[in-house]
Amino acid sequence: MKKAIFIMLLLSPFMTINAQRKLETINEYWRFERSDVNSAQDAAFNDQNWDIVNLPHTWNADDAMKGINYYQGIGWYRKKMISKISQDKKYCLYFEGALQDVYVFVNGKQVGRHQGGYSGFRFDVTSYLNKGNKAVNQIAVKVDNTLNPSIAPSAFSADFNFWGGIYRDVYLEEYNQVHFRNDNYGSKGVFVETPEVSNESASVKIWGEIKNEGLNALSVKIKNIIVDAEGKIVKELISKLKVESGKNTPFTALSGKITTPKLWSPDSPYLYRVKTQIIEEKTGAILDLIDNPLGFRWFSADTKQGFMLNGKPIKLIGACRHQDYEGLGNALSNDLNRYDIKLIKEMGANYIRISHYPQDPSVLEECDKLGLIAWEEIPIVNAITPTKEFFENCRINLTEMIRQHYNHPSVMLWGYSNEILIGGYSDALGELHKELEALCHKEDPNRLTGLAFHASPLYNKKGLGDLPNIVGWNRYEGWYRATLADFGKFLDEENTKYPNRPLIVSEYGSGSDTRLHSLSPESYDFSMEYQQLFHASYLKQILERPFVIGSSIWNFIDFGVSKRGESMPGINNKGIVRYNRKPKDIYYFLQAALTKKPVLYIASRDWVDRIGTSASINENFAKQQVKIFSNLPEVELLVNGKSVGKQKVVDFTAVYEVPFEDGKNILELISGNQKDVCIVNFKVLPYDLRSSKDKELVVAVNAGSKCFFTDPDNRVIYQPDQAYREGGWGHIGVDLTKKTTLNMPHNVKATTIDPLFQTARLGMEAYKFDVPDGRYEIDLQFCELQESEAGKRVFNVSINNEEVLSTFDLFELSSSLTASIKTYTIEVKNGKGIRVDFKAITGQPIISGIKLTRL
Ligand code: GCB
Fold first, then answer.
1. CA 574 to centroid of ligand 1, rounded, Å
2. Pocket test for ligand 1, best of 473, 554, 558 (most atoms within 8 A of CB)
3. Is the pLDDT of residue 597 over 90?
4. Closest ligand 1 atom to Cα of 480
5. Domain DUF4982 spans what residues (predicted)?
6. Ligand 1 pocket, 159 CB below 6 A?
7. Domain range spanning residue 359?
8. Can you point out the beta strands (E) in 255-310?
């Protein structure tokens, strides 16, 4: 991004005699080795066998997705930098972010160390560089992503991956001897704020320090040019200063009144810019120039009016964002970072929680530009380390975040911890929080603070709830615990107890896996349909309560967590867009609810391969539900050219029972001149399976589950479990008054279709399938979800009276949480169909799936 600014500046009228600072990315052609290597910092070290990488780069792009033991250790980067290095200039290396304990060497000498994986840092390397027109300088960077008790986040339990590497851009910066201070916590060194803003007038204050690294004192002018979005000059402020050699000289510029300022808001993110220059008085040369965004807005939060922006209430509605991406880890281009902000904005959000750590500079630049109000926080997550080193690291993290992002009008809230009492309360923790709260306000008196709590009464008891300006609650009622309605109950109780505390729902979300679908969705089933119910319910409950100042969905994206073992191992799939940013259907529900532009969407993109059974022998179609998300009053759905009726849209949703035919079904949704089309491939099974003429007949059962499960690799759709009826298929002899199903979303070994094995039926007598005569392949799919000892669950299995498994002990065979598949071939004759019997010897028989394929 800065490179772009630099190019712009070169062409701009602000450039007069001398080139000012020059910023150049040095992302290309680094050598990389993922281990600790002796003497790798030495200029003469031979790195020719190392990998060649471009930045941004992480060394965990692959292995962090493959389980808990991804590489956390040391990696080395080396770059031979060939560039013009002048005698009379100053040089810095600027890292936008590297995770997380970083040592930087130039020509064999250490120039600095930075601890913290999420903020920018800069080292002055002038005295270490070889000079010349084509000077060769050897940079070496040692990076360590080991969990470190002295560096936030220090808790192993933090629910994200610590992707190691130099994962953001790196710059070589060239300065004149006299320049804005560049050693101020990685910031730009020039700060902009708006002491007064109203509809009628505003004022701007710009301050910073000038560093004179030359040998002589110099008389300079500080020129601030405020331009509007069209580039028109609104104000020019000039003051004179004498800058002493070897000193930092402070300056402050006040704009005076700017009348009828154009205000910044999510609906109209009007941006001015402030160009701050140091001009040598004698020659008129511009010695340094910094360009900053400027937005005029004022805001506050209370429980009477909620969040107020520019004098008007605005409910903050948006999403939290992690920064990783499928296949790339955290090493994203600026384009991909910006793309997320665009998607969040297009959904109709006005707010983003940048969690749980500061992110790439391009993120906030895009929030400024597109109009998203931001909460940004430092990564103190789940627990603290009660040591001096950790506390100091927290202070540095916070100061870096605030100083680096001070000038972004989009930022209105600073956060400094998340669910911190997971690790328990201590007085030290209380003290740290008090200190960080005070530090936020000292560093930035103009913004609000927020903390994100989890479901524990301890936050209120221990006084943490009284600390920030805004109390954030991460709520998961109806997912990890309780019911959807308990969410609203909690909010009301909290508001009754603390009527003057502005409350924000800092997180809420439920997992979803595009392979799982349900016509009777329920909590923790990971179906796309439950996620839809969850979000519809939460959004309604949030909007109904004026005292809730806002909310952010957890999480905008599916993101990587190596230690998470749910339906998609290694992935927290609460995203409303996939890991590759393809929106899930729920994204369009939210868009319908939050935007003014017409939204008309057939919510079946996540479920285009379906199966079902006709309701009687006279029907050759199967009815199945399809949801419509829209903000238009009425819609009409056509299936294969025939109307299935008009419907009023209620709560942004209409539900159709669609009569699907076997094969391709073209769904067309119409409202006025708007149209949406979706094609669903449907397999219709006849009511009486015995009449099936299908040579490729497949009947697959997701035993013990109410979900359809699509195995995308093998193109098989498993149907939800059901009781047997004549002519159909299903379980027999299950005592439905007892608990006869299991749901254990933990990693299953030796398979990629974990969800099939994470649910199971227990204690059935048999499964019967009234399939026509012919040859069949039968897969019996097992996974032990309960027992951790051999001998606890032993049973026999027979197929059409022939015993195929005797004294079958699944744990003995394959231990627990491991997929085991037994495949048999059978000839079905005389209209007998297939019956699989289970006979308990010890414990209850268990089965995860059964698949029949006609051969
Ligand atoms: C939370 C945490 C977040 C987790 C999330 C979850 O409350 O703040 O880091 O990822 O829950 O998905 O469980």
1. 9
2. 554
3. yes
4. 13
5. 624-669
6. yes
7. 315-533+543-549
8. 258-259, 272-280, 286-294, 299-302, 306-309
Lookup: tokens for 683: 């397999």
pLDDT digits (tens, 9 = 90+) for 645-687: 999 999 999 999 999 999 999 999 999 999 999 999 999 999 9
For the chain, give me the number of helices (H) and strands (E)?
A: 11, 55
Q: Cite the DSSP H helix spans in 448-483.
A: 458-461
Percent pLDDT > 70 in the chain is 98
Catalytic residues: 419
Q: Are residues 750 and 810 in the same domain?
A: yes
Reading the block at residue 57, the tokens are 């780069």
Among 322, 453, 507, residue to substitute to test ligand 1 (most atoms within 8 Å of Cβ): 507
What pLDDT is attached to residue 263? Answer: 98
- 572 in any annotated domain: no
Cis upstream peptide for 56 (omega within 30°)? yes
Whether the predicted pLDDT of 83 surpasses 80: yes
pLDDT tens-digit map of 15-66: 333 468 999 999 999 999 999 999 999 999 999 999 999 999 999 999 998 8
Q: From residue 722, how far is each of 708, 731, 813 by CA, in Å? A: 12, 6, 28
**Domain CATH code at residue 100:** 2.60.120.260
Span 532-568, pLDDT tens digits? 999 999 999 999 999 999 999 999 999 999 999 899 9
Q: Characterize 127-157 residue by residue with b for buried, 16 or more Cβ atoms within 10 angstroms of its Cβ, and e for exposed.
A: ebbeeeeeeebbbbbbbbbeebeebbbbbee
Average pLDDT for 104-127:
98
Domain end point (choices 134, 154, 177): 177
Same domain for 629 and 673:
yes
| Residue 836: CA count within 13 A, CB half-sphere | 30
- Find the length of the chain: 855
- ipTM given for this complex: 0.99
Give residue 473's identity as a one-letter amino acid code: W
* Ligand 1: centre distance to CA 828 (Å): 51
Q: Average model confidence (pLDDT) for the chain?
A: 96
For residue 664, the domain's CATH number is: 2.60.40.10
Quote the pLDDT of residue 67: 80
Together in a domain, 245 and 386: no
**Distance separating alpha carbons of residues 70 and 66, to the nearest angstrom:** 7
CA distance 684 to 693: 12
- 113 found inside a domain: yes
Tokens read off for 778: 């039968």
Kindly give the distance from the C-alpha atom of residue 159 to the centroid of ligand 1, in angstroms, as a whole number.
Answer: 6
The CATH number of whichever domain residue 323 belongs to comes to: 3.20.20.80
Q: Is residue 38, in this structure, part of any structural domain at all?
A: yes
End-of-domain residue from the set 147, 177, 207: 177
Taking alpha carbons only, the member of 60, 68, 53 closest to residue 163 is 60
Binding site membership of 419 for ligand 1 (Cβ less than 6 Å): yes
Q: Which atom of ligand 1 is nearest to the CA of 574?
A: 12
- The answer to whether 621 and 383 are in contact (CB under 8 A) is no
One domain for residues 761 and 657: no
